[in-house]
């Protein structure tokens, strides 16, 4: 972080801390303070600020989501899960909360729950290319190769220059026996800077003879 950015963040934090003292029941003041603390790397203080926002208003969905992201980053999946579940109760159409639950379930190897959460996120917003890619990965892990291919194609349709998207589609095509097309997408993934698994590349080359 540059010195200038540190200085700017310090000024914003000082202003928000003052605002929180002046308005101790302001959800938005504590929420924004938590976000700026996060940006400044002051994570423990971010947790306290976001927890305060939720204490003031237990329907503060965005505070729950951001606090959940901190706990997910720290590996506390249980706290992250509960926060995002509460966020979904508050805002059932919040795609980010469903996405976060998908990531948590995927990390916990609860693949069916991860798929269900990603699908709910896509029901809320079907144009989220990254969620189609997440869904592709989980479907591949489950061996649902045809569904994985469809999800991968949808993700690439929304984001044609995604290196991850091309790699995911290459993997799905490989498991569906479409080796030539898989090679095309693997080459594209490399071209776009994706670090391709050499074992997968070698296995695909072997299939192509």
From TrEMBL:
<protein>
    <recommendedName>
        <fullName>UDP-N-acetylglucosamine--peptide N-acetylglucosaminyltransferase SPINDLY</fullName>
    </recommendedName>
</protein>
<feature type="repeat" description="TPR">
    <location>
        <begin position="61"/>
        <end position="94"/>
    </location>
</feature>
<feature type="repeat" description="TPR">
    <location>
        <begin position="27"/>
        <end position="60"/>
    </location>
</feature>
<keyword id="KW-0677">Repeat</keyword>
<dbReference type="InterPro" id="IPR051685">
    <property type="entry name" value="Ycf3/AcsC/BcsC/TPR_MFPF"/>
</dbReference>
<dbReference type="Pfam" id="PF13431">
    <property type="entry name" value="TPR_17"/>
</dbReference>
<dbReference type="InterPro" id="IPR019734">
    <property type="entry name" value="TPR_rpt"/>
</dbReference>
<dbReference type="Pfam" id="PF13424">
    <property type="entry name" value="TPR_12"/>
</dbReference>
<feature type="repeat" description="TPR">
    <location>
        <begin position="95"/>
        <end position="128"/>
    </location>
</feature>
<feature type="repeat" description="TPR">
    <location>
        <begin position="129"/>
        <end position="162"/>
    </location>
</feature>
<keyword id="KW-0802">TPR repeat</keyword>
<dbReference type="Pfam" id="PF00515">
    <property type="entry name" value="TPR_1"/>
</dbReference>
